[in-house]
Every structure is written in C-alpha cells, then in structure tokens.
Amino acid sequence: MSSKVKFFAILFLLNLASCKNHARSDGAFFEGYNRTESGLFYTFHVHGSGENVQHKDLVLASVKFYWCDAPIEMATNYFVLGPVEPSVFPGDLNEGLLMMRVGDSASFLISADSAVIHLGFIKSYVYHLCDFLRVTVFIDEVKPFDFEAYYEEREAARSELQAHLDAEQALLRNHLRRNNITVSPNNDGVYVIVTQRGTGARITANSTVIFDYTARLLCGRIVDSSCEDISFYAGLISPWRDYQPQEITVGEQRWITGLDNALIGQTVGSTLRLIMPSTASAGQRQFIMPHFQPLVLDIEILEMR
Question: How far is CA 17 from CA 67, 110, 157, in A?
C-alpha cells in the first residue's frame, strides 16, 4: 500500500472513530440533552414567552441542520414547518415542535437513519460517520393551518390545470387530424414520425447522441434551432450563441423529458419529427414559447458515441 493510500486510510479511521464516539450516548455530544420516551434528544437554548405550538399549526422558524457538528448547507435557513401532525416515526421533529412556543430556541437529535428514510435527507460521507441529525430551531411565529381553504385552493388549481391540459390536447388532436397523422403516441405522449430512415447504428439507452434540431409551435412559428441559418431567417439569431449540434446522453433526461424515449431504437442518419405535449417538452432545456402549447421538434441524428 502506498504512503498516500495509508495516510487517507488512517485519516478515514480517525474520523470514523471520533465522530462515531462523539455521537454515542456516552459521549460529550449528548451533554445537556434530555431524552423523551420515544428517543428524541432535545435541549433548549432560549425559552420564549409566546403561544404554544399546537397540532395542525404552521411554524415559521429559522432552522439549521447538522450531521453531528458538520453543517448541511441549505438554500435558506428560514422555513415554514407543518402543519404539525402526530409523530411519523419515534423521535421525529414533530414531537419536538409540540414542546415549543414562540420565541423558543432548541436543538433536537434525530436518528440519522430515520432522517434519511422519513425526511428525505441524502446519504453522504458525513452521514455514515454520524448517528444523528441535529436540528436547531428558533420559532418566530405560529399560526393555525386552514385545511378547508387549502383543499379548496388545491382543487381550484387542479381544475384550472386540467382545463389548460384539455385545451392543449384539443389543439393537438386538431393538428393531427388536419395533417393526416395517424401514428400512435408513445408512453410520454410523443408522436414520433420518421421522415427519413438512416442506415447508421441503432441508438440505445446511455448512448451519446449528437443532433441538429429545430423547434416550432403547431402554427409553424420557429422558437429555437441549433442551425444558424434557420435561426437567422426566423429572426432568432443571437450574437452570443455558438450554433452547434446538440449533444445528450440518452436516459439522463437532461434536455427535454420526451426526447430520450423517442430517440431509443432510431438509427444514425435518421430525421424525425416529434410532436409532443407540453408535459413532454419540459426539462432543463426551456424553449421560449407560450404555456400549455404542443411542440413540434425536427431532429436530424448526426452521430452516436
């Protein structure tokens, strides 16, 4: 074993021993903490004088998370917690919140495994060295959660969304009928039309595919293209853009969600016309187009690696 490998192995074991011991019940990590019957460790830093947290309350609070003493970086430290419900698992944060009142500041130790399984925290190097997620909470405000208003708003939003999707589907069906398109959609709702069959290799999942594309609305208006000439005549030319074929890895869905499955099984040299609903044209690549509008995507498959 090289000296460098030995050094990192020793460093790993030292970190493992120190953090694991630090998180055990006989370590200093628990000094000053009390323990509930369910196994939640807690300690109060500040006692406020505001109203108590009740079931179904929304809790507005500053919250910080740590694996042992290693902070977890979050986009914000200010959260709306709740509505507070009965505990989902023994020793969860809801139990701790119900012990607090406005103005309180407290820390809670939650089993690391429970935090990953029930709270959606990601397993990491530090997680494997620590038995507990530490959550520090300062409560700024509590207010009752109006379930009736919430369900009414959610149902109204759902109905509005469905109305938009139904109108989009009507546009799509009309376009298919007027253009005598009879192919069936795939599982993503995408209509795949092979306008020219290539003679190259067949595309599989995890292939790297290079292609040119032009994106249009159903009315024919071009909204984007990888080709400089097409972009120029469509009035979309940008002096800051490098007009080059697009490259993606099939299966990663890092461009638009409906493209990957449409490419699988096609051959290099083929040209495709993909007619897709807005649900399939979403993704990291966002075209400048109205909401809830189908997209027509012309693809020329140039190369596969």
Answer: 15, 20, 52
Q: Which amino acid is at 192?
A: V
Q: What residue type is assigned to position 171 of the chain?
A: L
Dist. CA 109–CA 116, nearest whole Å: 13
Instruction: Characterize 5-26 residue by residue with b for buried, 16 or more Cβ atoms within 10 angstroms of its Cβ, and e for exposed.
Output: eeeeeeeeeeeeeebeebbeee
CATH number for the domain whose boundaries are 185-304: 3.10.50.40
In this chain, the answer to whether the domains covering 3-146 and 185-304 adopt an identical fold is yes
Residue 240, phi then psi, degrees to nearest 5: -95, -5
Where are the chain's structural domains?
3-146, 185-304
What are the tens digits of pLDDT across the range 237-253?
Answer: 888 888 999 999 998 88
pTM exceeding the 0.70 threshold for the entire prediction: no
pLDDT: is 27 or 259 the higher one?
259
